[in-house]
Write a structure and sequence with these properties.
single chain, alpha/beta, ABC transporter transmembrane region fold, Rossmann fold, about 65% helix, elongated, disordered C terminus
């Protein structure tokens, strides 16, 4: 329990003064709430009673404050006015308490949400390799909302329950010791029962939260791949998967609410028993004549005021259990180490030379690169070929510092890449990924992602080089056309060319094309390669591809197999040497020749049909 209190105390840093003011307002409001019933109690026992002289000292004191017995008996409206005034003041300070707590909680939650989101932006890619997007979304939304509700109401409610119990005790003792003992008789069992339930609710809510995260992840993955699901007619299968996850969530929810239902039923029973004891004992002593009517009225009112906040402690503890689980799940994110950069930033551009020196890298226990070494001088073009899983895209990821090598050194412009701040290095490296990602914005906004200040002329130059300018101009809204989520309104080839134009617009020292021409036709590919040849010498280029036609003009060609460099050289050198490159070149050349032979008769036939027409 101490660790939980310490965690909540740390969480409310910066807003502790507001919470202190809220608790102060709560103390004042509670005092007025308990002072208000003293007025009718004093009138009943000190003014209207058959024998006012038997009234206690506290009653006589209140009557004296209100002007004395004789004057008050003739001006009972004053007692009503004072009662209403005390109730109104209690309401005013209750409002202040709620307002201050709400302001504090919203500020805290905003800070937490910003911290979590900022931390997610700087976590290493290895973290996302094992994380589920839906679960992360659920933590950033549902868990933060759980925390907000607790901070907005229950933090102050803890103080309210304690104050509502402690404030009336001196007043109750001053009026009647016996009734005070009866009024507090069942409070220890209620408190103990609430604490026991809290421990079980915390476990139950953890299961609910994890089940909700799995449910969110299932729905998120389905909606992301909805076109694949429909293409393979797997709707029924996906519905069955969701039904199983949903059933798990329902079962966890049922266990939690069953536990809560039993708690509310039992605590309600104990509270009603406590009130029944007060009524029974009060009536017994009232009949005996040892208890005044006003005192009986005050104890009934006081028990009504504090029994429900004390009973509410169970709900507070239940919400505390939920909040603790939410905090732990958010702490799981915040405790993950962020990407670390050198303390002193490098102001100079890293330049375009790329050098790999004995680089090895593994995903877990699976080796992806093994002792890879090569040098790419600034301004030249390097092509990388190899079968799937040979490590081509891993080289790209290492150059972007999405990962760091397990062994070896990568140098960019003579600088050790691991010593360059990531933002600084990435500012001079542009990449077009195999599966380009476009945001749900206009084409112009997507193009300016890496260079917000780019002019319209710059946009046109980049899109013309990427052979996409004509297509964009053909849209009704041109560069202001919204592309939808993930660029869904564009074809695969259009998305790749927009992503290529976005990279070219950045004017990087190093341009990386990670199999980014695979979705364009050969004519468009030729136009793009021509534009890249014109830029040769101004920027260093790395092209990852599967087609020899894409890479044959590169200054160097690197052939990978199972994470190792098996061949390296120019197109002419590799064609002359026995190895996988020559086999690939011959296979693709023969395939192209067969395609040309098949297409020739078709074109001739089409020509004759046109002449006949």
């Amino acid at each position: 329990m101490f660790s939980i209190s310490k965690r909540v105390w740390s969480l409310i840093r910066g807003q502790r003064l507001r919470y202190a003011a809220a608790i102060a307002a709560l103390v004042v409001a509670s005092s007025f709430l308990y002072l208000a019933p003293l007025v009718p109690q004093a009138v009943l026992d000190g003014v209207l009673a058959a024998d006012p002289g038997r009234a206690g000292s506290s009653t006589r004191f209140v009557v004296g404050l209100l002007g004395g017995r004789t004057w008050l008996a003739e001006n009972l409206w004053l007692a009503a006015l004072v009662f209403l005034g005390l109730s109104a003041l209690a309401g005013l300070f209750t409002y202040l308490r709620t307002r201050l707590a709400a302001d504090a909680s919203e500020s805290i939650v905003r800070r937490v949400r910003d911290e979590v989101y900022d931390h997610l932006q700087h976590l290493a890619c290895r973290y996302y390799d094992g994380a589920e997007t839906g679960d992360l979304i659920q933590r950033c939304t549902s868990d933060v909302e759980t925390l907000r509700k607790f901070l907005a109401s229950q933090v102050v409610e803890i103080g309210r329950a304690l104050i509502m119990l402690l404030v009336p005790i001196p007043l109750m003792l001053a009026i009647d010791l016996r009734m005070t003992a009866v009024s507090l008789l069942l409070l220890p069992p209620i408190a103990a029962f609430s604490f026991l339930v809290f421990r079980r609710i915390r476990v139950a809510f953890t299961a609910v939260d994890e089940a909700e995260g799995a449910l969110t992840a299932r729905i998120s993955e389905n909606l992301t791949g909805i076109r694949v699901v429909r293409a393979f007619a797997r709707q029924s299968h996906e519905e069955e998967l969701l039904e199983r996850v949903n059933a798990t969530h329902r079962a966890a929810d049922f266990r939690l609410y069953d536990l809560l239902a039993r708690f509310w039923a039992t605590s309600d029973f104990l509270c009603f028993v406590q009130k029944g004891l007060v009524v029974g004992a009060g009536l017994y002593w009232l009949i005996q004549g040892s208890l005044a009517v006003g005192a009986f009225f005050y104890f009934l009112t006081a028990v009504n005021l504090f029994i429900w906040p004390v009973r509410h402690m169970g709900r507070i503890l239940a919400d505390l259990g939920k909040a603790v689980v939410a905090i732990e799940r958010l702490d799981d994110i915040l405790s993950e180490p962020a990407e670390q950069d050198p303390c002193e930033p490098v102001e100079a551009a890293p330049g375009g030379e790329v050098r790999f020196e004995g680089v090895s890298f593994a995903h877990g226990e699976v080796a992806v690169l093994r002792d890879v070494s090569f040098t790419l001088p600034a301004g030249q073009t390097l092509a990388i070929l190899g079968p799937s899983g040979s490590g081509k895209s891993t080289i790209v990821n290492l150059l972007l510092r999405l990962y760091d090598p397990d062994r070896g050194t990568i140098r960019l412009g003579g600088h050790d890449l691991s010593r360059l701040p990531r933002k600084h290095a990435r500012r001079h490296v542009a990449v077009v990924l195999q599966e380009p990602f476009l945001f749900s914005k206009s084409i112009g906004d997507n193009l300016r992602l890496g260079r917000p200040e780019a002019s319209e002329r710059d946009l046109v130059e980049a899109t013309e080089s990427a052979a996409i300018h004509a297509s964009i101009r053909g849209f009704d809204q041109g560069y202001q056309t919204e592309v939808g989520e993930r660029g869904v309104t564009l074809s695969g080839g259009q998305r790749q060319r927009v992503a290529l134009a976005r990279a070219l617009l950045q004017r990087p020292s190093l341009l990386i094309l990670d199999d980014s021409l695979s979705a364009v036709d050969t004519d468009t590919e030729a136009r793009i390669l021509d534009a890249l040849r014109e830029a040769r010498g101004r920027q260093t280029t790395i092209v990852v591809a599967h087609r020899v036609s894409t890479v044959r003009d590169a200054d160097q060609i690197l052939v990978l197999d199972e994470g190792r460099v098996v061949q390296q050289g120019s197109h002419e050198e590799l064609v002359e040497a026995a190895g996988p490159y020559r086999r690939l070149w011959r296979a693709q050349t023969e395939l192209a020749q067969e395609g040309a032979e098949v297409a020739a008769p078709e074109r001739a036939g089409s020509g004759r049909q046109l002449q006949t027409a």
